[in-house]
């Protein structure tokens, strides 16, 4: 079914009786050419691009819960391409270009809104770093505008500009950055993959990976054994656990990241604003809620829920930057499990097991990567060679130490990225 304004009008006249489910609910087949473990944003996008770019459709996506129930439906929806380092720059730049054509390609409204991302700075040293990052973004072909204090004031007049500890010196503005509706991204990719013949199988947990003579043969699941020519692991915060089924020990730690949303307010915040010094960022959703978050929980955990110390930390940071936020009532908070890599950059690569591929390490920034990651991982699965935008996301960089991409300059401690 193709969506259009005319279709919405016609369904309105027919009491909305003609809409179809977005995807089928197939039984798993005994064998597929490719099995993708994980029905989050990256897994669904991979399936979509395998079908749309490479014509491969004998594919199953196996999801242990429901599609979009993981981090893809839990994030704060920020989409941007403001990276500094070679490797990341070209990848996120490509991903943003895919975002810009995504609604047309999927024929699905993902509510992509290029409202601009504003990164604040609070010292001369931070300004220098912002200039350097902005130049890297422009060299990559993306957009960046350096704002002084008054430039920031025009966009967000209600900040505490004279905060004693973190006075606002200015900001780096990225106009093409913004937000997208996270659930719709999962649903749009799921629908696009299903329409092309991919089987999306929910409530199907992978419990084992079958390997014979160093070659992957298939997977064991709660719905039976499934044979596969190739298997892709795309399970975000569960990456270490699923890779362990193949005897692999990954350089990944899982940490909880929390987020919060307030009651709906009248439009007051036009952009995404980040306050790096306070580990705080905020935007306003289309429903009016202020959506905000902060830093990781500092200990490793698989619990996809929040806790009070981090809630307090985030509220304090919010109040320091934007005292008016104290007037808003928090509606709810939640957590997701982040797959933290030692250098803060992801992995899209083959594994030592032939036919077994890995996509993980997205840390707290993998939502904006969904199209780019799906595109690159599909390329790797289909052609057995990395896509040029993801060629540096090698697994062995953590063994050799060569090719690390540490955007934050915080070293190899997972929870500092
Ligand atoms: C609070 C929060 C805020 C965030 N904000 C942003 C942001 O603003 N911008 C941004 O770019 N990123 C953000 N992120 C990060 C982003 O959401 C993640 O990096 C990204 O969604 C991870 O990829 P995914 O969508 O494929 O993960 P998921 O949606 O988690 O998909 C993985 C799937 O694998 C499934 N799975 C796990 N184990 C198995 C198994 N054994 N068998 C079958 N299936 C299995 C899981 O159930 C899950 O559905 C945020 C994350 C959180 C939690």
From TrEMBL:
InterPro entries (alphabetical): FAD-dep_OxRdtase, FAD/NAD-bd_sf, Rhodanese-like_dom, SoxB
UniProt domain Rhodanese: residue ranges: 34-78
Source species, domain of life: Bacteria
EC code: 1.5.3.24
Pfam families: DAO (PF01266)
Compartments reported by the entry: Cytoplasm
Reaction equations catalysed: sarcosine + (6S)-5,6,7,8-tetrahydrofolate + O2 = (6R)-5,10-methylene-5,6,7,8-tetrahydrofolate + glycine + H2O2; sarcosine + O2 + H2O = formaldehyde + glycine + H2O2
GO cellular component, one term: cytoplasm
Main location: cytoplasm
Cofactor(s) for this UniProt protein: FAD; FMN
Enzyme class: oxidoreductase
Single GO term (MF): nucleotide binding
UniProt keyword annotations, A-Z: Cytoplasm, FAD, Flavoprotein, FMN, Nucleotide-binding, Oxidoreductase
UniProt xrefs under PROSITE patterns: RHODANESE_3 (PS50206)
Protein family (similarity comment): Belongs to the SoxB family.
PANTHER family named among the record's database cross-references: FAD-DEPENDENT OXIDOREDUCTASE DOMAIN-CONTAINING PROTEIN 1, SARCOSINE DEHYDROGENASE-RELATED
Protein name, entry field: Sarcosine oxidase subunit beta
């Amino acid at each position: 079914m193709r969506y259009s304004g005319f279709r919405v009008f016609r369904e309105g006249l027919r009491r909305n009786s003609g809409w179809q489910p977005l995807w089928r609910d197939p039984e798993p087949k005994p064998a597929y050419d490719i099995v993708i473990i994980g029905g989050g944003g990256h897994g669904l996008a991979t399936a979509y691009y395998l079908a749309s770019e490479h014509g491969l459709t004998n594919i199953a996506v196996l999801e242990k819960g429901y599609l979009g129930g993981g981090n893809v439906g839990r994030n704060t929806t920020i989409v941007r391409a403001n990276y500094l380092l070679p490797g990341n720059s070209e990848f996120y730049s490509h991903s943003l270009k895919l975002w810009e054509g995504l609604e047309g390609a999927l024929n699905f409204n993902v509510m992509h809104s290029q409202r601009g991302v504003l990164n604040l700075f609070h010292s001369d040293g931070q300004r220098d770093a912002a200039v350097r990052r902005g130049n890297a973004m422009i060299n990559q072909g993306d957009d960046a505008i350096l704002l002084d204090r008054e430039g920031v004031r025009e966009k967000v007049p209600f900040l505490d500009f004279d905060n004693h500890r973190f006075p606002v010196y200015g900001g780096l503005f990225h106009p093409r950055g913004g937000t997208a509706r996270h659930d719709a991204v999962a649903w749009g990719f799921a629908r696009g993959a299903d329409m092309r013949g991919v089987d999306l199988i929910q409530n199907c947990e992978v419990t084992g990976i079958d390997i014979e003579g160093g070659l992957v043969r298939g997977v064991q699941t709660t719905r039976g054994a499934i044979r596969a020519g190739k298997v892709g692991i795309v399970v975000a915060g569960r990456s270490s656990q699923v890779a362990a089924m193949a005897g692999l020990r990954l350089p990944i730690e899982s940490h909880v990241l929390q987020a919060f949303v307030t009651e709906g307010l009248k439009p007051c915040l036009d952009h995404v604003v980040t306050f790096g010094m306070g580990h705080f960022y905020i935007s306003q959703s289309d429903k009016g809620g202020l959506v905000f978050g902060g830093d990781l929980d500092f200990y490793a955990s698989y619990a996809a829920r929040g806790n009070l110390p981090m809630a307090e930390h985030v509220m304090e940071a919010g109040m320091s930057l934007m005292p008016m936020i104290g007037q808003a009532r928090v509606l709810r908070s939640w957590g997701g499990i982040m797959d933290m890599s030692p250098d803060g950059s992801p992995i899209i690569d083959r594994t030592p097991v032939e036919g077994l591929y890995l996509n993980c390490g997205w840390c707290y920034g993998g939502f904006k990567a969904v199209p780019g990651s799906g595109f690159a991982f599909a390329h790797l699965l289909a052609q057995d060679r990395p896509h040029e935008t993801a060629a540096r996301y090698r697994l062995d960089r953590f063994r050799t130490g060569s090719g690390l991409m540490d955007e934050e300059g915080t070293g190899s401690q997972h929870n500092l990225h």
